[in-house]
Amino acid sequence: MIGTADGGWWSAAAVITALHCSAMAAWIPVRRFRIVYPFAIVGCGAVVALAVDVRLYALSLVGLTVGLWPTRKLLTLWSHEIGRGVTRERYDWPRSHLAFCVLCVTGGAIAASVLAR
User: What letters, b where the CB count within 10 A reaches 16 and e where it falls short, cover 58-95?
Assistant: First the structure.
């Protein structure tokens, strides 16, 4: 499927990856996370983009970024707590935030499959 998408989708995927990594670095201000996360997302994304389709990678990543928007304050709070050495038994993720994130990522995947036709 490498040749199925034109160069515009590859450029869009690169821009979306940069925006997503920037948002995550702002929401989770931990130095180690800012260093490791872009490599992880690019590595996993490359597998999806090359094995399946670059449109799926790009639009699912947009869905993930939008889906995590309501939880950004909790992610920042939790990362600061972890940085201070505070640990919780459970990090309660609000169900509405989780449902919204799943809905956004699923919507991105559906949009990618529609655009692939």
Answer: bbbbbbbbbbbeebeebbeebeeeeeeeeeeeeeeeee
